[in-house]
Amino acid sequence: AVIMLLAEAEGYIQRLRDSVGADNPAFAALRGFARDLMGWLIARGQVNVIVTIAVVILLLALNVNGALIWAVMTFFLGFIPFLGLAIAALLPALLTFVQQGLTSALLLGLGYFVISTISENILWPKFLGRGLNMSAAYILVSAFVFGWLMGIPGILLSGPLSVFLLLILSLFKETSWITNMIVTRDQSEAPEENYS
Questions:
Q1: CA 129 to the chain's CA centroid
Q2: 40, 132 contact by CB (below 8 A)
Q3: Strand, helix or coil at 94?
Q4: With pLDDT > 70 as the criterion, what percentage of the chain qualifies?
Q5: I need a surface site. Which of 18, 45, 133, 165 has the fewest CB within 10 A?
């Protein structure tokens, strides 16, 4: 469903532009939301590709059966902020424990831990900063808050919900300062404020 929506996104934008007019502030805000959401998805996808390659190398080095299946699962579970890689490591670690013993399973767990630490603390902030200009701390806090409010669906949707929350906050003069604290922009990208 998400892929179909993304494929048709340009058509939705065109219909919205025709309905409300290209100079409508709501259109500009929604266009910015779509751009930021795509930036989040692209940044997360790029990090997930790198993580998946590292996981394949780890699994092949430890001679774990079904390395490609586990890697594909790792890619998709990587869209769950901060928990996806831990969930992806459970089944391969269990399989490795059954087939090769405790030492290999612990090595696999350690490998996943190192990959997760590097991806979430080094790669993700770098890719997020290039694609979306949102503070990594904001994404982390959002994952916890939306997870607390909505459980597992909140964790899964924390990225898009975070972008949507920033959109709403940026629309009002009284709350736009919050957006300015969270979003990092070059001075050349900073929008001109027209509050009258």
A1: 12
A2: yes
A3: helix
A4: 82
A5: 18
Residue 55's identity, in one-letter code, is: V
Q: Give the pLDDT confidence score for residue 106 in this predicted structure.
A: 94
Angle at which helices 124-131 and 136-150 pack, to 10 degrees?
A: 100
List C-alpha distances in Å: 49 to 16, 43, 57, 63, 80.
33, 10, 13, 21, 14
* pTM score over 0.85: no
- CB 99, CB 65: distance < 8 Å: yes
Q: d(Cα 152, Cα 71) in Å, to the nearest integer?
A: 22
Report which residue type is found at 179: T
**Tens digit of pLDDT for each residue in 157-168?**
777 788 788 878
Length of the chain (residues): 196
Task: Report the C-alpha gap between 97 and 182 in whole angstroms.
Answer: 43
CA–CA distances in Å: residue 68 to residues 137, 171, 175:
32, 45, 46
C-alpha distance from residue 29 to each of 69, 118, 129, 165 (Å): 40, 34, 20, 12
Cα torsion through 90, 96, 102, 105, rounded to 10: -50
